[in-house]
Each structure stands twice: as C-alpha cells, then as structure tokens.
Backbone:
C-alpha cells in the first residue's frame, strides 16, 4: 500500500469516528497548560491531572510561582516523574516569564523554547492546543504509533518523525492529527499489546499482520 493511500484511509476514519480530539490535560489558561505539559514529560496525563490542582492552588500565577524555589515546588509534584528537575525548571520558567515576557506565555514558538524545561515538543503542543498552529508535536505515543502503522519510515528521531508527518498530513489537520495519534496510542495501539482486533484503522496499518500473528 502506498503511503498516500494509508494517510487517506487513516484520515478518513479518524475524521468520521473522532471528529473532536483534544488534550486530556486539565488547564484553564496558557500558564496552566505550559506547567502541565512540562510535568507530562515521561509521565501520564492522568497523574499530571491528579497533581496540578494543589500546585495551582498554591501557585496560581507565574508571579506567584516566580517567588519560590524549586525546593518549595517539589512537595507538590513529588509523585511526578523526575520531580527534582521539573521543580527547578518550573521555578526558573516562571521567573523568566515574569522578567522577560511580562508574565504572559509567549505565542512565538521559538521564544517559548527559551524557557527552562520547554523544548520543541512542548512548544509545539502549546501551539497546537492553544493556537491551532500547523505543527506536529511528537511524543512517545506519536513516535511509536506513526512508525508502527506506517505513516513514517525509518525515522530515527522525533524531529525526523515530525517532518515526515507534516509532509503526509494536510497542514490544516496537523493539530487534530497530533491528538488522533496520541489517543490511538494511549487506548488502542498500546506499546506492549496493541488491540488490533478492535482497531478501526487496521486495514491501513503496516504492522497489522505482524501483531495479529503474534496474538
């Protein structure tokens, strides 16, 4: 099957069966989303959502968070993966937001990446979720699923996967396609035991026969 056919079939199925696909992180404003995305690195959204209410009650604004150290943030996020580094990054991120951006999350994705704890993936998530930017954030789910189903080929890095996916999907679909792939990887095309028998896009999947045989 040609990749163009695979993209067309997969887009068609998701467009019909998942016309609305959004982040599962809970947030009320750009600052809260930025904090949640930083915390979500190598951690589940469910765990992040359990952690952020108390964190945001204690530090509801960049100004409030900028006044404290990473050591003071740590107790609120200690159940998150890599809490020490993330606590330090959150404190430094809040200080830079206040000192260089007037306490406002910058809408420029390059400027966002200047903030401690914010890399290309995090900036792209912010762009896709908040401003519908035509970008493709690549996390572990997107990287795994896109390779497994055949939307990417021989992508060795998240950047290579991002570039192939941005070339394959129509640009206006990139923000929702990011969520399609994440949610598909989270609930159907799981890492260890993909649910191929229940998969709506199985007929376009490059790995279906392998995993069906393995089962």
Residues:
């Amino acid at each position: 099957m040609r990749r163009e056919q695979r993209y067309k079939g997969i887009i068609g199925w998701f467009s019909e069966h998942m016309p609305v696909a959004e982040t599962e992180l809970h947030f009320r404003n750009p600052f809260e989303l930025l904090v949640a995305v930083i915390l979500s690195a190598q951690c589940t959204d469910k765990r992040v959502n359990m952690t952020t209410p108390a964190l945001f009650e204690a530090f509801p604004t960049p100004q409030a968070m900028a006044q404290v150290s990473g050591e003071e943030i740590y107790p609120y996020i200690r159940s998150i993966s890599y809490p020490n580094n993330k606590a330090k990054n959150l404190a430094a991120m809040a200080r830079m937001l206040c000192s260089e951006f007037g306490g406002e999350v910058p809408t420029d994705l390059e400027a966002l990446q200047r903030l401690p704890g914010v890399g290309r993936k995090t900036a792209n998530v912010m762009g896709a979720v908040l401003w519908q930017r035509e970008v493709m954030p690549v996390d572990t789910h997107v990287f795994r699923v896109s390779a497994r189903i055949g939307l990417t080929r021989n992508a060795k890095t998240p950047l290579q996967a991002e570039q192939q996916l941005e070339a394959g999907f129509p640009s206006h679909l990139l923000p929702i396609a990011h969520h399609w792939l994440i949610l598909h990887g989270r609930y159907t095309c799981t890492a260890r035991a993909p649910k191929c028998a229940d998969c709506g896009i199985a007929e376009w999947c490059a790995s279906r026969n392998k995993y069906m045989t393995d089962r």
